Amino acid sequence: MLKAMQCVIERDLRLYFQHWGECLIPVLFLILVVSLFPMALGSEPKLLARIAPAVIWIAVVLSLLMSLESVFRQDYQEGSLAQIVLSPYPLSILLLGKLIAHWIMVGLPLLVLAPFLNILLQGSSEGLGVLGLTLIFGIPTLSLIGSIGAALTIGLPNGGSLLAVLVLPIMMPIVIFGTCALTAATEGVAFYSELYVLAALFILTLVLGPVALSNAVRASLA
Amino acid sequence: MLKVNSLSGEWDSRVLFSGLTFEVAPGSALIVSGANGAGKSSLLKILTSLSLPSSGNIRWQDQLFKAGDPDVLSQLLYIGHKIGVQPALTPLQNLEWMTGISRKSVVKNCRLALEAVGLAEFEDVRCEVLSKGQCQRVALARLWLDPPICWILDEPFTALDETGVSLLQDRFLTHLKQGGILVVATHHKIALKPYPCQEIRLEPVKDNFIF
Q: Rounded to 5 degrees, what angle do the CA atoms B202, B57, B39 make?
């Protein structure tokens, strides 16, 4: 079973490497959205430092949504998704493999980039580590939720905007806890409770998400 | 043994076929024919459990076939209208992936299978530079890889040249000889003698909307 999952991950990584330019888009998008804020709000360090956690989190959510839109698209169009569904291995495991590959090529660069953007926005140095910690749990959770929406909108023309409308409300709690933890850390208050909630949400979506995802994929192929 | 009992299928709330009952025994074939849009592909998708029938049931070795049943899926090979070949990968990578996710396959034989379908020199070229017929051969190469018992193929002759067609026909005959089951939707006349072969002809859909 793990071998089949590994097979899916390897192939997807290979595909991502062949179209490596597409993996750069979410990263560039994140940088651009975040750098829009100092331009629009002016470069007052205190203001920027206060909004930094929220800005970075929202930008991460948006760039993840953008890249998730196409996570199943090509496989759907070429018919590989039907082969994945017809594999005797558990569908949820194979789809989780696809999401792991997506995390390596998209989630991880965003995770690495976010602390630098925090510096760009003059965010506090205490917040730096916490930002990383919240995103470690936050990005996979957001990916899992977003992928369910992506699977449901796969066969629709213009699915991207529908995807955002569909999954953003469900992503809200994660954004709230993520930014709350960061604000708490910047103010020097204990932030562990928010972090624990984020971790719990991650575990919950990791367990239930793939099941929902496989049903969503089945439904859109039928 | 594949048994289908009073199967009905609809698409976009139009009845494509209803009350289909048939049996395909090991070593025999079923040809699904009919005009474009008559519901051939839909019938095959229902047989693979990708789509659900609106009524009726499918039995495989006398057990009810439910979507995602791993025992049945490991005995089933489906090549659809969309063949599942990624243009950015080479034929070998494509084939290795397809076999990697299906249980009954020997990955080391992938090169031999590609050789059998006449793609020996193209193993390491990206599929996007291959012709449509060659891509079809990449997908069909799975049939040469110690494949499962029941083949469900949707228009397998699409874009194949004459040698390709006769190659595939010969492969069908060996499969039937080994006691395999073959379900093909096609417009081609295929000669599968001396093996038993039944034909289902689907009539084109009239405007029989269900309200």
A: 20
Euclidean distance between CA atoms A113 and A135, whole angstroms: 11
3-state secondary structure of A30: helix
Chain B interface, best mutation among A9, A10, A70, A78, by max B CB count within 10 A: A78
- Quick check: B206 pLDDT over 70? no
What's the pTM value of the predicted model, to 2 decimals?
Answer: 0.91
A188 versus A132: which is more confidently predicted?
A132
Residues 6+ apart with CB under 8 A from A101: A8, A9, A12, A13, A16
Helix (H, G, I), strand (E, B) or coil at B34: strand
B contacts of A88 (beta carbons < 8 Å): 70-71, 73-74, 102-103
Tokens found for residue B15: 């009845």
Written as one letter, the residue type at B97 is W
Q: Is residue A156 helix, strand or coil? A: coil
Specify the residue for token string 């193993």. Answer: B123
Is B26 in CB contact (< 8 Å) with chain A?
Answer: no
- Does residue A205 or residue B191 have the better pLDDT? A205
pLDDT classification of B67: cutoffs 50, 70, 90: confident
Cα A140 to Cα A203: distance, rounded to the nearest angstrom: 10
Phi-psi group of A6: left, alpha or beta (phi > 0 → left; psi -120 to 50 → alpha; rest → beta): alpha
Query: Is there a contact between B114 and B95 (Cβ–Cβ < 8 Å)?
Result: yes
- A168-207 pLDDT per residue, tens: 999 999 999 999 898 888 888 888 899 999 999 999 999 9
Cβ-Cβ contacts under 8 Å, B106 against chain A? none
For the residues of A117-131, what is the DSSP string, one character each? HHHHTT--HHHHHHH
B11-37 pLDDT, tens digit per residue, is 877 888 888 899 998 999 999 988 888
